[in-house]
Amino acid sequence: MIRAQLELRIPNMTAYETITAAKKSAIPDDAAMLRAAVELTKDISAARAAIYWPDCFLSAALGYGALAGAVLLRETWLAVVCALVAALALYRALLFIHELTHIHRNALPGFRFAWNVAVGIPMLTPSFMYENVHTLHHARTRYGTAEDPEYLPLALMKPWSLPVFVAVAALAPVALLIRSAVLVPLGAVIPPLRRVVWERFSALSINPGFRRRPPEGEFGRMVFWQELGASTWAITLIASTQFIGWRPLLIALAVFSLTAVLNQLRTLVAHLWENDGEAMTVTAQYLDSVNVPPPGWLAPLWAPVGLRYHALHHLLPSLPYHALGEAHRRLSAHLGAGSTYAGAHYGGMMPLLAKIARSTMGRR
Q1: Could you tell me the residue range of the domain that residue 282 belongs to?
Q2: pLDDT tens for residues 279-301?
Q3: DSSP 8-class letter at 262
Q4: Chain centroid offset of residue 154 CA
Q5: Global confidence as pTM
Q6: Are 150 and 289 in contact (CB under 8 A)?
Q7: How far apart are CA 283 and CA 190, in angstroms?
Q8: What residue ranges are annotated as transmembrane (predicted)?
Q9: The total number of structural domains that make up the chain
Q10: Residue 199 belongs to a domain
Q11: What are phi and psi of 349, to 5 degrees?
Q12: How far apart are CA 60 and CA 86, in angstroms?
């Protein structure tokens, strides 16, 4: 009966909440949508180096240049403008870590190494903190369950959980600095500490119950060199305060805090967070996720590198970010405004924040 109800309503829905009051895990797969997603995007599935390299590293260069301006300029308003530009540009460069987890290892030779040197290690967020973690979030049987490192049923939690979720992100840069400068070096000589640091503080996850498994093989060797680079850089940053004072480091940490808060807000509206822990179909996962398609012009700033199409990304995880806009246009034209595909489209960050907040209000 539930399946019949869902199949009747899904083709005509315009928003996720119109499906039914049935459990989200009971939503059946829309075979037509899944088939169209694959068939209509075969010719745009290759990652293009001519887009990845300049987009990422010009963003990083702009970010570091603006950060230098925030540190060196004495005019307060100019320094603040530079800080905002730095936060947005470095945010875009940092989010290429998401692409690194999905593109084939041989697709962009040298890109992973260059990204870690230019972005991941300087921002104390090397790629291992997301690799072999984010893919668990896309696993068919893990999404939205207790084994998903990137899922919390935020819409089903208490109202205070949302501001706490965002506020914690402001402390992330300081926590990363302490991790790399203090905890990782200590862990090198104290095995129990090393195990705790790896299990609990070495992944970009939001699920406090997630415990990371020890790295092995080639990935373990990559982790070693990335950890060494991040620790060396973190210690150098702290040592530099003895020669140039604390001001440059504190400004940089403030800029990175703004970046982290922006990313946390994006994370907060990337899903509806309505699953109660049971395994979900691919269609249910899609409808628990969010697209913010054009014409909204702010979305590329707070959800860059294709993340405005986060629901579509859950349909096609390996599709490169630069192809998502075209994939969206093709699927929208093929499936129509009243389709399941349209059920994951929303108008912007503020309506989504309001929707999730309303969901929590009844749980005081």
Answers
A1: 2-46+271-361
A2: 999 999 999 999 999 998 899 99
A3: H
A4: 16
A5: 0.91
A6: no
A7: 46
A8: 50-71, 77-97, 109-130, 164-190, 244-262
A9: 1
A10: no
A11: -65, -45
A12: 9
